[in-house]
What we know:
By secondary structure, this protein is α+β, with helices and mostly antiparallel strands. 39% of the residues lie in helices and 21% in strands.
Amino acid sequence: MIRKVKGTRDILPPETQLWNEVECTALRIFGGFGYSEIRMPLLEPTELFVRTVGEGTDIVSKEMYTFTDRKGRSLTLRPEGTAGVARAFIENGLGQRPQPMRLSYHGPMFRYERMQRGRYRQFSQIGIEILGAANPAADVEVIVALHTFLAELGFDDLIIVLNNLGDPEDRERFITGLKTELTPHRGELCGDCQRRWDENPLRILDCKVPRCRELVAETTPVADVVSEDARHHVATVEAGLEAVSIPVRRAPRLVRGLDYYLRTVFEVISPELGEDTVICGGGRYDRLISDLGGAAVPGVGFAIGEDRLVDVLPQSFKDRVFDQRVVVVLPVGDAATAPATALARELVLAGVTVHTEVTGRSLKAGLKWSGKMAASAAVILGESELADGVAVIRDLDRGEQETVALVDVVSHVVELLQIQR
Ligand code: HAM
């Protein structure tokens, strides 16, 4: 047997219904806030991620699916969506359109990570990005859109944490201070952090090794060393969120695992998955587009890990999605096949979910199958019924049945499903 690649998953029915409903809700809510969908390639030049996500990050240094194509070009399966959005913005001249540009996306991302619950090598993100708005009002908007989406799914226990990373210039100062404070303990840091010390010291703050965490907890938080402009920016974001009663918590050690962020960074934590398996991450990235050779276009956005989100969906949401009624159409005898097909089509067009018996079961076996399919009703088309221009509609919830003229079957079924609700 050929098995799936480690870290990938088959998402089977009926769980796929949850995914579809989550994606439809995202398109509706984010679309409502003015975010239009962009679809980007899964393959990008490797250099795109090296220059944006950053060479010293875990993503670029050890998690990318990178290969050389037949013409010797280095390509990478996208590990995230923001870099691709920035590339597409520049390449397609989206800066010429009315600004700001509000974009949403969803789809698979790839990272070669160690497997655990909520951590996959192919996973899906749902994200939005607003480009061309430097004002704190844009940061507030994306977090409000995020909160609205999560509330619409029925979540009421998720926690939004936020921090101020300052500007890149502040970061230089912060890193110098951080190193000074950590120097006496340098030998106690883990092997990865020893490497990070020179390559990308900010990433020491992301380290999950307990001793590294303890040492980091003693250092001065990044928000304490940022410029007055950056401080004012994030304070305005926090005030804006408070004004609309969206609770956010300060997380002084939050730095996020990608290099393009500045000022506002945030994450969404679920009590069930804990702090190391966050549901969503985002922040501001005002230099990303100019670093890629575009104009000085500021941006802010986030991406939700859909696998993790679906894993902790509220029961109320699942009940709503799975409360879908099914009707079976049971033709009995060859002459009933064509009328059954025609009826199924009419039922579908009337909004009913139909499973038609197509394997030649007898009426008895067909009814047993209807039970296994948890169908709400069965429409039985026997040869004698057809000769009389009628069908039998059996209410499988109540075990009652009635004979109905063929022309009235669709309206009867629709009515029956409504009564059963
Ligand atoms: P990120 O924090 O790297 O940010 O990823 C965002 C979310 O994707 C995470 O919070 C997590 O839920 C999910 N995720 C990441 N890796 C995995 C994995 N291996 N398995 C399952 N889920 C995973 C970004 O990607 C940024 N592009 C977000 C952003 C958009 N910032 C600004 N705009």
